[in-house]
Design a protein that fits this description.
Order of helices and strands: EHEHHHEHEHHEH
Oligomer: single chain
CATH topology: Rossmann fold
CATH class: Alpha Beta
CATH superfamily: P-loop containing nucleotide triphosphate hydrolases
Strand content: 5-15%
CATH architecture: 3-Layer(aba) Sandwich
Shape: globular
Low-confidence stretches: none
Radius of gyration: 16 Å
Distance between the termini: 17 Å
Largest sheet: 5 strands, parallel
């Protein structure tokens, strides 16, 4: 089996995907891609699609699968086979998961999906702490609940899809950052 250069972090908002993706990239020398960063950059623009995107983000909605898929496909298709990429917070629906699997398979890029399983109480606490730092509205309970509803309804089926593909590893995301990192390294054989 070829060496894995593609990693995908999944989990509820606030589960630690971005943190763990950055730590893994630092360890492996790869780059991190997050759909959220791409969406926020576009939402900051003054073009129509930026304003439309901003409305959806402020409401706590997931982006349409076709839009999210376009963003990560564009990135995958531009990579050389030996380049390491870590997706943190991309692929949030079953349709996106199926497309991601199809694209990386066609490209000959084996991947590992890592699900950071975290309790709602822990992610709520983390999101409140992040809200002030990142200028996000996660301290608004209605936005938080909307994001959790979206996660449960749309992202958990994507997690199940990767489980059926045999590419999913589950890590307890409630643990401290260092413990989660060690568990990920153990799973990846680092």
């Amino acid at each position: 089996m070829p060496k894995t250069h593609t990693f995908l972090f999944m989990g509820a908002p606030g589960s630690g995907k971005g943190t763990q993706a950055a730590l893994l990239a630092e360890r492996l020398g790869g780059r991190v891609f997050t759909s959220g960063d791409e969406f926020r950059a576009l939402a900051a623009s003054q073009v129509y699609v930026g304003r439309r995107l901003r409305e959806s983000l402020e409401a706590g909605e997931l982006m349409p699968a076709w839009f999210a898929s376009f963003v990560f496909e564009k990135t995958l298709l531009a990579l050389e086979p030996q380049e390491t990429i870590i997706f943190g917070g991309s692929v949030r629906t079953k349709d996106e998961a199926e497309l991601f699997h199809e694209v990386v398979h066609w490209l000959g890029r084996p991947y590992i999906a890592i699900y950071l399983e975290a309790s709602e109480a822990v992610v709520a606490q983390r999101l409140q702490a992040q809200a002030g730092k990142e200028g996000r509205r996660d301290d608004d309970q209605s936005v938080f609940h909307k994001r959790m509803e979206e996660f449960n309804a749309k992202t958990l089926p994507a997690v199940d899809f990767f489980r059926t593909c045999g590419t999913l590893s589950i890590v307890n995301g409630d643990e401290p950052i260092e413990t989660v990192q060690k568990n990920i390294h153990r799973i990846l054989g680092l």
